[in-house]
Write a structure and sequence with these properties.
single chain; 136 residues; alpha+beta; six-stranded antiparallel beta sheet; 38% strand
């Protein structure tokens, strides 16, 4: 089983920052080849599959989340586009699945606790994002 979904419409993903780790990254930011940033959180695990939530996030909102101005729960519940992706990664050789879910339909148990923040404000943005800003 891979940590990142393979062959889904999220594209080819690479992790750019890890915020929580328990055997594997549980809360992290990643980006695809077209430079869409996602905040991802582990939602649940069974012996058959792992479930993750991926919220597409703009660079400005990403900065607000990583500096502790937006709590993690709200980052998912108030997604800019009104939806998040439920990513199901089977433990066998089955294909990974990605399902768009409206923020109103999110399972409360899959979300971070209210009032949880990350504070990476003193940390520089990942080099991948800095390169993008220099081009502009």
């Amino acid at each position: 089983m891979s940590l990142l979904p393979q062959s889904t419409y999220l594209g080819k993903l690479e992790i750019i920052e890890v915020y929580e780790y328990y055997d594997v990254p549980c809360l992290f930011a990643c980006r695809n080849a077209s430079e869409q940033i996602f905040l991802a959180v582990w939602a649940s695990q069974t012996k058959e599959m792992g479930r993750w939530l991926y919220v597409p996030i703009s660079l400005g909102r990403f900065r607000s989340v990583r500096s502790g101005n937006i709590d993690l729960r709200d980052a998912f519940l108030t997604a800019e586009d009104g939806f998040v992706y439920e990513v199901i990664i089977p433990c066998d050789d089955s294909l990974d699945r990605t399902i768009a879910i409206s923020c109103e339909e999110l399972n409360d148990e899959w979300l971070p606790e209210a009032g949880e923040f990350i504070d990476f404000d003193s940390e520089p943005l990942p080099a991948l994002l800095l390169q993008k800003q220099e081009i502009k």
